Amino acid sequence: MAYTTFAFLYELGHALVILLHKNSLLKDLVVIFFAAKAVGHFSVMVGQPSIFGQLLVGIILGPAVLDILHPNTLLKELAQLGVLMLMFLAGLETNLREFKKGIVPSFLTAAGGVILPFVGGVFFSILNGYSLNISLFIGVVLVSTSVSISVQTLRELNRQNSREGVTILGAAVIDDILGLIILSMVLALVTGGEEITILGIVMVKVLAFFLLAILAGLFVVPLIMLLASKLQVREGRLTFALIIVFILALTAEYLGLAGIIGAYFAGMMVSRTGLKHELIGKVEALGYSFFFPVFFVSIGLAADITSLKGSILIFAVITTFIAVFTKLVGAGMGALMGGFSPRSSLVIGAGMVSRGEVALIIANIGIGCGLLTTDLYTAMIVVTIVTTVITPVLIKVLFK
Fold it and tell me: How many domains does the chain have?
């Protein structure tokens, strides 16, 4: 009897090991959903945001540690949908009146969070013997900010509509525009293009997006949502709200901005239609049960640090410290100049630390045009992952 029980448990364990290492989207989703919720719950129990645990799940189950989950095209696409829905939710919940009032401190925060990281990244890279072109591009990677992680942390703390939360969101939009301008100028400089011409094209594209977004919000979005309300189908309003999100995200990407900016503006536009509270509940249910866990875990999966050795490991560690310090201080000083208290300024600076998917996009551009080697690309991924993982911890500690 004992032998039979042992044999059964052995076969069950063997089957489980095979299942965990089987390449299947369904298996990946089962593992992601279970681990994200379980570890997220444990993270809250020890006093940290649940998102911190979900990010760690990706690192632990990914190639860096247990090698159970691997980045793949399907997971990346689902993760992209997740971040768009998260930013749409942030837009739905944004207080437009407070957003308009906070434009000046948001601009000062973004400016400080762009200038200091760029200078710090360029200077340190030159000190390490990299060429000016490569150093400039590393500086551009450090400029980027992705507040999708900060948004979720603020939501868990119920601070998304606080002055600090609104300023972080506003600064992220401006940061994306400033980062795009710097990226365009650096690419023009290192590839021999005309900087003034490139800069002019970038500014025209940025203005075109905001003009289209405002016109859509005033005239097109209300009409679409009114027609959706009259459809004799289930969840018509939610479906057409998501269509608006994807269209504005595609428009933003086409004009050179990050898709998350389009999704965020879609949320703000839809919130003006009177369907705000209904859609918040439905997007939360859809996002938290499916898309958000995939997005947060996928970030951790990118952290394959096995190729980092010797000098490039040291470079990655010090660059990570510079990335955190310069955003915290640069954005924090901007917020301080915008009228915030020292403590609130640090909270805002912490909210701008995460580089997220924006830095990964820029790093991909760098390796595609030959400015980043494979080792430097890996180092930039490590910088992105670490800044993303520590952001929720920093925000919660500083808010307390």
Answer: 1
